Amino acid sequence: MLKRVPKTTLKSLMKKKAHIRVGTAADAMVELNVLLFLHSLAEEARTKAFEEKSATIKAHHVKAVSKVLVRNSARGCLGLN
Amino acid sequence: MDSVDEDVSARILLQSVIHTESSRSPITRSASQAQFQSPGSRVRRSIRLRRSDVVALTPQEALKQSIKKKLCESTSRPSLPVPPSKRRTISEGVRKINTPATASLLYDDDITPRYLLRGILQTEPETSLLVQDRPVKKETELPSTNSSLHSNRPSTGLSELDLPDMTTTVNLSNTVKGLSRKRPRRSLNITAFNRQLEHEDGEGEGGSATEKDLSSLSSASPSSITFSLKTPFVDVRTEKRGFQRKVANRKKICIEDFDEALQNRQVAMGGDPELSVREDQQCLSETVRSEGFTLGLSDLTAPDITHDIITSNTELYALPVDTATTFTIATQDKNTITGTQIQREMGGMKDDEEKDMEEVGEQKEDKMEVDNKDGEDLAGDAGQREDSVRQKESKSQTEEVEEVADSQTEEVADSQTEEVADSQTEEVADSQTEEVADSQTEEDEVADSQTEDVADEGEQVAEEGQEKSLTSQSLSHNAMHISRRAYCSEGGVKVARVVEGGRGYKSMGAELHPTETGWAGRRSEGDTAGEWHSGPEVGASESAHTRTVTLGSVPPSPLPQEDEQELEGLSRTGTSLGNEEMENSMPPLEMTFEPENNTPHSSISSLHPITAQSPADHEEDWDDVEEGDGIQSEELSMKTPAFVREKRNALPIDPLATPTVLKDLQPSVLAGAAAAVKPKAVRGKRAGSAKKDPGLSKSYIMSVFKHFTKTKVSTDVYPVLKEIMERYFDRLADDLEMFAAHAKRKTIEVEDVELLMRRQGFVTDSMPVNVLIEKYLPMESRKLLIPVATSGNYVIPKPRRK
């Protein structure tokens, strides 16, 4: 919406580890997923920042949130981080 | 002991009841008597309850009903000279009696809440509104908020109770509303309520007041008590608001909105706990909704004026806690979109809207003050920009926009005038609204995001003055538009703003975006020197445009972030030079800039010949876009340092990405730059491969994150964010690979990603993938995923026939 990540970038990201092929529309879906993930991350970070009464989101907010989010995602996903 | 007290209170109550001959249903009296006489008169109570249409009531509802009835009984003794405190204690005692008894009774008899509520409804209207309502309500407030709690909870959670329960709750609220209809003007005043309780003797006002108070109290107290419940309460409150809307129409709405606004403001300023919290809950729930609206370009429907007012107003306040500064900006999206509708309906609702506007205006002014305070934290032009704009001070903007085109100033002035006009009335030209409406929606959202991004980026550059001023021009321009729009509290006002902003956006949109991206790119690329290489290289090598070329020469030298300031100064001088000079000016600029650079960039300069095509192309495209837009664009392009553009161009540094980037750019430019680009692409690839391959650009992550947070984001988060994204992508790739392997496929397909999203919880039964696609993805991506049928029975993309 704001900026578009070139599809090739997404493809390169997905092919980084696995030498697997990526379908046509999967790039867009991955982009959607990325957006959603960032969205949830941003929401959580914002909540956390508000807890500290700061209008600005700082790095430690995001860091603390990421741990929770990664754990949640890992729960849902097969991979672990 | 409690029993003793209960007995005493029961006796007293009974006496009062006997003394007070109120026309109440015998059921109630006998029931109350039975209750009073023997706390354990469960049998009788059950009989009473059974008598009146036994329906399966939940224990809580039964409890509530019984309590209310008891209250009616106890409070039916107006002549009883019991002090309010005593009465309260009595009622409390009664309550205590009732609570355990009723609870046990209910559990034993399994009386449904519907039955209880019905009984209450039957009893309440029968009894004099004055006396009984007050105590009833009082009881309902406090303890029976427990029951109301229970009732609320079930009402909110359909899964917990049957639909009938919902109706009972609705009936209750309706009854309350009906009662409150008598005195809609009554303001929530607990002390007055208590006072009236004391003067309960036939005081219609008191009763009515209590009614009103009850409606608000019941809504308020539950909130306070159910605050812990959070979600259910919020829903109930929303529902009640909906009901109230029907009843009290505008008055209530105005008050509510005002309260919400006040509370939000207070929240922003760290205000009331309870009320603000309540509002927060509502706002949070609404924030989600509004966010959904904001993110997606879906149309916003505004059925009627009141709804518009409510929605628009609430939208205004729905995003409060995020930031006082960005409050106006964030909310303006929906406001602008609904502005047209609201404006059209303005005529009828003008007065109310004006009232709201004034209220909002006041609040906004307060917010502006708050924003000013917040802006100090940012210590950046961005903050100043926002504050100044909100404060209708174009001067600060102009200061920031020193070099900005006159058009920008003009727009500022226009916005100011419009703001003034808006504050007074809502005489925004409907034509303007209609004209700009459509174009506005997308532009606004994009612009908003851009502005916010730009604002955030501007914050980062705060320390680096010049650069900020350079880029802040476009930023401020955007901010002006957006803030102008946001400043208007009502649709009409917003429309005016929107118009203004829209016009500005139309002309500035394209350039702003590239400018922003370029600037953002520069910021993001600051971390990676490698990417810088490609950027400056491209700029230096390209000679398509004089300005770009000259500017491009600048970036190569000052790559490191520390030199950004220098770069800015250099770029600015370069731009000023570039404006007039042509390609020939490149060498002298380079010479000028290089000495100013602290860090040696010989390597970079050596890479000059090896330039990525994308930056050059981007510059070209950007310049073309700018020139196409007009003076403003030209000035912007001139002002914006080349290295910024270089950075932006350098964003998709991936050598693989460059061709795609080229495609994304305007095709007209591509055609011209194709030849020049190719050799550079080759060189860029070589250089690109040397640098790391993180993939996702920092600016992209930054912009998306900022947009989603709707608040200011410090720059510190970006390294963290980048790492998070990398790890996320790794996990993503692994999972997708596993899914594809599970499907015995070697290619990651859409289904795999969809399954992944389902696992992650993004896709649920209630949130299909297509909705998400519509919500988040840009058109290009969307077209890939959702088949679009065009004329001639031609579907894009071609549906796969498996």
UniProtKB/TrEMBL annotation, chain A:
Major place of residence: nucleus
A GO-annotated cellular component: nucleoplasm
GO MF annotations, alphabetized: DNA binding; protein heterodimerization activity
Biological process per Gene Ontology, one example term: mitotic cell cycle
Subcellular location: Chromosome, Centromere, Kinetochore; Nucleus
InterPro entries named in the record: CENP-W (IPR028847), CENP-W/WIP1 (IPR052484), Histone-fold (IPR009072)
Protein name, entry field: Centromere protein W
Family of the protein in this entry: Belongs to the CENP-W/WIP1 family.
Superkingdom of this protein's organism: Eukaryota
TrEMBL record, chain B:
Domain CENP-T/Histone H4 histone fold: 705-788
UniProt feature, compositional bias: Polar residues: 23-40, 142-158, 468-477, 595-614
Source domain of life: Eukaryota
Subcellular location: Chromosome; Nucleus
Location of the region described as Disordered in the Swiss-Prot/TrEMBL record: 23-43, 130-163, 190-222, 344-478, 506-623
A GO biological-process term: kinetochore assembly
Amino acid composition bias (Acidic residues), ranges on this chain: 399-464
GO cellular component entries: kinetochore; nucleus
One function term, GO molecular function aspect: DNA binding
Signal peptide feature range: none
Keyword Nucleus: yes
One Pfam family here: CENP-T_C
Gene3D superfamilies on file: Histone, subunit A
Segments of skewed composition (Basic and acidic residues): 361-376, 383-398
Sorted UniProt keywords: Chromosome, Nucleus
Protein family (similarity comment): Belongs to the CENP-T/CNN1 family.
Protein name as catalogued: CENP-T/Histone H4 histone fold domain-containing protein
Source species of the chain: Hucho hucho
Lineage, opening ranks: Eukaryota, Metazoa, Chordata, Craniata, Vertebrata
